[in-house]
Design a protein that fits this description.
Blueprint: E1 2-5, E2 12-18, E3 21-26, H1 32-52, H2 60-70, H3 77-90, H4 102-114, H5 119-138, H6 163-172, H7 190-209, H8 213-217, E4 224-225, E5 230-235, E6 240-245, H9 248-260, H10 279-288, H11 296-309, H12 314-321, H13 326-329, H14 333-356
Antiparallel strand pairs: 1-2, 2-3, 4-5, 5-6
Helix pairs in contact: 2-3, 2-5, 3-5, 7-11, 11-12
Length: 364
């Protein structure tokens, strides 16, 4: 096939078949002739390697980039990019992909578990490293024979908070609360005050919007309209945008934070970039409230459950949560069924009471 243009990329892509396999990568150049020269060189290398049995070493970062690029058409592309960034951070001292061993993959799993990431998230991460490994192997690069750990994801009962549990959580993370070992609120360092306030604001935002952890973490001020009380929320996991109307709590939080902020993001780190919240940090908040088995996603479940319990149907909740497939929203179907069943009972009770009234036309 030679060199081609793909999507909106300004660069030429090299793509051809060799021994029944398709080879593709970006030339990282806008010069078509240079890209054609690179294609010819790549073909020669493949032939040479076949003859002498030597394979090229692949740059770890370039393999991740090329693998993510090959998945560009998928709805999950944004999520794959997030996983790739996570892998680059973990393997920051790895230069070539063939330096990744089974032991390194196992260490990755153990480290993620220690950090408090769920088995579902770890499974997604393993899927990206496995996909990148297969991609490098298919491209003819030198790789190790890897064995990937089995990550079991149990379909546990849907966990969401009652209003009493929510009160316990908010009390446990109240930024003005007295904490053993900490100075009284007025005497605390300003950075500590801000850190405690950030966590409180962040968790309330998750509760009242039903948004994913990463969607609020990377929310920019240009997506917030305080005058109309709306948030234009871009959802990278499913590549769609939702317009969310602010609850009173969310409006008060954003109005206060806007008056104190000159940064791009609503929640920022010390350098002005989007603030990171480790799963272990959020789980600690639940532990303080004595709420076991909860995570940031519990707040999303809580939001969805309350909407259904108060009259919204599955399809309406799908739009609020930004699901691309109704099948994902169907995990809340049993709540809707319970709500509908209660309504049905109330209807029958009302009809029975009306039917039990004496017919005044027959009296006397």
């Amino acid at each position: 096939m030679g060199v081609i243009k793909r999507g909106n990329s300004k660069f030429w892509y090299i793509q051809f078949q060799h021994n029944g396999q398709t080879f593709i990568k970006s030339s990282k150049t806008t010069d078509k002739k240079l890209a054609e020269i690179m294609e010819a060189d790549w073909r020669k290398k493949l032939l040479f390697n076949e003859v002498v049995g030597i394979k090229d070493r692949a740059d770890f970062d370039e393999v991740l980039t090329s693998y993510a690029e090959s998945k560009k058409e998928l709805a999950s592309h944004g999520h794959i990019l997030l996983m790739c960034r996570h892998l680059r951070k973990h393997f920051k001292n790895v230069r070539y992909f063939d330096e990744i061993t089974t032991q390194e993959v196992e260490r990755l799993k153990i480290e993620e578990q220690r950090q408090g990431y769920s088995n579902q998230t770890i499974k997604h991460l393993m899927g990206v490293i496995r996909g990148s490994w297969k991609y490098a192997k298919r491209m003819g690069y030198q790789v190790n024979d890897l064995e990937f750990p089995t990550i079991r994801v149990h379909n546990s009962k849907l966990r969401y908070l009652s209003f009493d549990e929510e009160k316990r959580l908010l009390k446990a993370i109240d930024p003005r609360r007295e904490v053993k070992g900490l100075a009284p609120y007025a005497e605390r360092h300003e950075l500590l005050k801000q850190e405690m306030q950030d966590k409180y604001d962040f968790l309330v935002m998750l509760l009242d919007t039903g948004a994913r952890h990463g969607e609020i973490r990377t929310l920019e001020w240009n997506k917030v309209n305080l005058a109309e009380r709306t948030i234009s929320l871009w959802r990278p996991k499913v590549k769609n945008e939702s317009i969310l109307f602010m609850t009173d709590r969310v409006f008060q939080i954003l109005e206060r934070r806007k008056s104190e902020s000159s940064f791009q993001y609503v929640f920022t780190n010390r350098s002005g970039g989007p603030k990171g919240y480790r799963p272990a940090s959020i789980r600690k908040a639940f532990d303080q409230a004595e709420l076991p088995g909860c995570s940031a996603h519990t707040l999303r479940h809580t939001h969805a459950s309350r909407l259904i319990q108060n009259g919204l149907n599955i399809y309406e909740v799908k739009e609020i949560l930004g699901h691309s497939d109704i099948k994902t929203t169907m995990r809340y179907a049993h709540i809707e069924q319970r709500s509908v069943s209660i309504k049905a009972k109330d209807v029958i009770d009302r009809l029975n009471k009306e039917n039990a009234k004496p017919d005044l036309r027959l009296v006397g």
